[in-house]
Amino acid sequence: MGFGDLRSATGLRLLNDFLADKSYIEGYVPSQADIAVFEAVSTPPPADLFHALRWYNHIKSYEKQQASLPGVKKTLGKYGPADVEDSTGATTDSKDDDDIDLFGSDDEEENEESKRLREERLAQYESKKSKKPTLIAKSSILLDVKPWDDETDMAKLEECVRSIQADGLVWGSSKLVPVGYGIKKLQIQCVVEDDKVGTDMLEERITAFEDYVQSMDVAAFNKI
């Protein structure tokens, strides 16, 4: 169990993968486990490791409350993926051995062997992670599309909206909702993949049908 050296690119990648489907190191609230790992990460993770960076920034906001967070802080090697060998204590053990070994050659050979085994296990872990299906973040969005007036052809307006096609966008059910003075708005549901489709893009594409559409608003937005 462990992340290895969290100051290295490999350790940070392990942390990022570990947090892909988790908000915290342990449980569902910030704890001393998060503080222990946070302190081992010397600088903010790079932007491409967005799971680790999101977690780092979140835990950093608790800097003044660290002592009050629940749990008991354990050694770093007690946290992280179960199938990665903990190497966090290797440096301390080597130093203790150096104090009683006048030559140190055996320790150097053992350290090289430990390093080789650690790299092999990290490579195996990365291989396992790459074979797992990636979790795709999706959202359900309810849009209100308003026409110019009561003479707007709402069937044509909906046809225009549904003509918008994009990778990661699926249109759902719709209905007309009265707004007053004989005017009805189109309320339409869609499901989007968060990394591919955003509300700004939807608004830009929908309001481009300016002969029919006056405006577009997001009525509801829920993560799936």
Automatic annotation (TrEMBL):
Residues annotated as domain Elongation factor 1 beta central acidic region eukaryote: 102-129
Keywords: Elongation factor, Protein biosynthesis
Source superkingdom: Eukaryota
Subunit comment: EF-1 is composed of 4 subunits: alpha, beta (alpha subunit of the eEF1B subcomplex), delta (beta subunit of the eEF1B subcomplex), and gamma (gamma subunit of the eEF1B subcomplex). Interacts with elongation factor EEF1A1.
Start and end residues of each Translation elongation factor EF1B beta/delta subunit guanine nucleotide exchange domain: 138-224
Protein name: Elongation factor 1-beta
Function: Catalytic subunit of the guanine nucleotide exchange factor (GEF) (eEF1B subcomplex) of the eukaryotic elongation factor 1 complex (eEF1). Stimulates the exchange of GDP for GTP on elongation factor 1A (eEF1A), probably by displacing GDP from the nucleotide binding pocket in eEF1A.
The keyword DNA damage is annotated on this UniProt entry: no
